[in-house]
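Worked Example 4.2. Consider the chain below.
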Amino acid sequence: PQRPEEARAFVNAFLKRSMPKKKDEAIQDILTRKAVVLEHYSKKKTKQKRKKPKGFTAKQRREMRLFEIEPEQQRYTIFLPLHELWKQYIRDLCHGLKPDAQPHMIQGKLLKADLHGAIVTVTKSKCPSYVGITGIILQEFKHVFKIITKEDKLKVVPKLNNVFSLEIDGFISYIYGSKFQLRASERSAKKFKLKGTIDL
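Applying the procedure from the previous section yields the following structure tokens:
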């Protein structure tokens, strides 16, 4: 059997462990009562952060040649079905491209649309050799378009200082490349100004 002092010390220590958020004065006040209600504090579970899988670096993508198109695949006719899919995609996006549709609404949707498969023409450029290049966009990067021409030649055309035009169902849209230097995935959240000028 414990002595009264030992029993008191044990009870005080037990209550302190059981009620860590209460001060000593509050615990002594509780001891004067006939019944003591112990409190339970559950430990907060620490959430483990999920590690996001790391993608390939730019160097690894170049080494693996992920974005390179093989020479035997560089044929205009191969990508004509892609262009037909793109036209259907734009018609669905613009609700049919009806004659009474507002041009600025269509223009706004085209600026945010995916252009892979679109037929574009370089209409203006600071470099005269780019003017007149027409073909299907195979790849869009932040600063360049990769275009396959009817002559089965793969052209890399910079966006900077170039104006592109694309036509679908009689609607012609102009793209100012200098204002268009974004990745395709970034354009969907970009707000484009309806009016703007560009010096070529």
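The chain has a mean pLDDT of 81. The CA atoms of residues 92 and 136 lie 20 Å apart. Compare this with Example 4.1 before moving on.
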